[in-house]
Amino acid sequence: MKRVAALLVLDRTRPPPPIASLPMGRAAVALLRDGIEVILADQASNGRVSGFVATPTAWLPIQDAVVCGVYDRFPMPRFPQRHAQLVQQLHGIPLGNPVSLRALSRDKLASQRHLEARGVVMPTVVDMTGDVQAMLRDWGVAFAKPQFGAVGVGVERVVPGDDIAPTRPGALGVHEPTLLQCAVRPPEGWAGIATRTVVQRDAQGVWIAGPPVARRSRIDAVVNVARGASADAAEDVLPAQTVRALQLTAIRCAQALADHPDGADLLELGVDAMIDPELNPWVIELNTRPWGRLSALYANDPERWRQAHVDLCARPFRYLAGRRTHIR
Ligand SMILES: Nc1ncnc2c1ncn2[C@@H]1O[C@H](COP(=O)(O)OP(=O)(O)O)[C@@H](O)[C@H]1O
Ligand SMILES: [Mg+2]
What's the predicted TM-score (pTM) here? Predict the structure, then answer.
């Protein structure tokens, strides 16, 4: 049996949910059958982790367990000190999606330059140091966003003449530098079609793209389910050719991000792309801690998405367990 852990924040005030009630629990049970034991860990000390371990019937408390790899899903931007302490206490246990790759993907300017240098085409992005109005006149429409933003906070559609603040509050409420990205025009009849494709390494390290999710809004150019956009399987609402292009583009992004000194530690990546009027995808940003994965689709139709959802939850742990053969 190989032991791996996910580093995250656990609610210690109540017992863990029944293991079969959530996709991650069902994934952990499936992994057990393949000889991989998952620990959900919120504590680390002396190279060992504590939290809850998966068993076929329940999550059980576990103290000071030795693991061969850790998927870092800790909300680092929200709890930077706690995160740094935890990582330090891991004493060099191999980390999946480590802080270096997360920091790069969080920075929308640095990550876009990294991808562009490796041949990924994205809508032009600039900071606010140049002649912003000239840029805007050239583009017609742009999106102003916080440099380290998430979940659509602080993102605004802007046109020439708009007064654009040089900083704006990001997801954590603190001000961040404003970036300006040329707008991808939406297809006729839509305010925006935003897609999310999760790409993951399989046990052998081969990149696999999951089913892209399309979030669509007829009224809001900042497309977000929390702001009322609908979420559907892209294969249900876009041509097969577009879905294939989304998956190939997302895999290219993962390969480009993994072209980094820590690239072998990239387990999975969420790739956001907008759909243009010709139904071609344009990558706009990356996420190294993709939340939700297929939750929205699963909520719409549990029977159809149950297996895909479990597969997506399990896959990063298979790679983590597979490439690390030594037990410390
Ligand atoms: N270049 C763009 N063209 C069209 N829409 C965009 C563009 N950039 C952002 N948006 C809209 O704003 C939303 C949030 O932007 P995004 O860059 O994904 O930031 P966040 O990290 O906050 O999710 C997108 O889902 C999309 O609807
Ligand atoms: Mg996004």
Answer: 0.95
